[in-house]
Write a structure and sequence with these properties.
The N and C termini lie far apart (about 35 Å). A hairpin with a 2-residue loop joins strand 1 and strand 2. The protein has a two-stranded antiparallel ribbon. The protein has one domain (about 10-75). It contains two helices and two strands, in the order H-E-E-H. By secondary structure, the protein is of the alpha+beta class.
């Protein structure tokens, strides 16, 4: 974890990526419902604040990372 607010360490990025992987793992799978089997998956993107960036830039970077994750993981159109 960062020692100073706004400071980003490489370990923070790795922790974010691991959290995203845990989220994907927890959600992804096949589930039985009253309507039949439903297969779920998710994509996640992470981004760290860099000095000089505003919130919009950080969210945009996270969006781009999420779409890149989706493109890597997608095997079919939905």
């Amino acid at each position: 974890m960062s020692e100073k607010p706004g400071a980003v360490h490489p370990e923070d990025d790795l922790a974010l990526q691991r959290a995203a992987a845990r989220l994907r793992s927890a959600i992804s799978g096949s589930y039985e419902t009253s309507a039949g089997t439903v297969t779920l998956g998710c994509s996640a993107g992470t981004a760290s604040w860099e000095p000089g960036q505003n919130a919009e830039a950080v969210l945009s970077a996270a969006d781009l990372a999420m779409f890149a994750d989706k493109a890597r993981r997608s095997t079919r159109a939905v």
